[in-house]
Amino acid sequence: MLSLYLNFCLFAFIASITPGPSNLISLMIGTRRGIWAALPFIWGASVCMTLILWLAGAGLAPVIVGSPLLKLVMSWGGGLWMSWLAWKLFFAAPSQAGQDRGKTIGWLQGAALQLVNPKAWMMALSTTAIFSLPDAQNLQHTSMLAALFFLVAVPCQLCWSWLGQSAAQLAGFPRWEVKINRILALALLATVWSALLMTGV
Are 109 and 41 in contact (CB under 8 A)? Predict the structure, then answer.
């Protein structure tokens, strides 16, 4: 069983550290406001992803995937909402001291992002297919997997916000900030719509 959990931790690390909508937004918050400002967003995204993983293990994800209309609404709704976020980032003005103090992306936005994130549901389905146990202890096992995922996901997203904060401290960053925002926006669009195309909606 220990080897199964170690393999899952590696799986969770790869799923959490690779570019995706939540990581790109963590990076963006880090560049504009610093690593600690990204913590509420990271907390909301990680808690919601943990809940999605637990629900998938408990049997909800196959129900959603088995309903074509619900899957279509969630996929397209999520894709359009994240495209709107990418649009706002693409046209965002350069950050200045105190300029966006009231425009925090917090835990609620992080949680909502994961609910409509195709990558999150694909990962949850993969986890259910690969790591679940076909016996009565499956719910306890699913809870352990969800807890391990949370412990892996938070540091991974913090790495992205730290990377953003570090980039913002480089000489000449203000000159490049708009270009970086536009690259991040296009990357966000690419990750969202490639995930949608992979799911076949």
Answer: yes
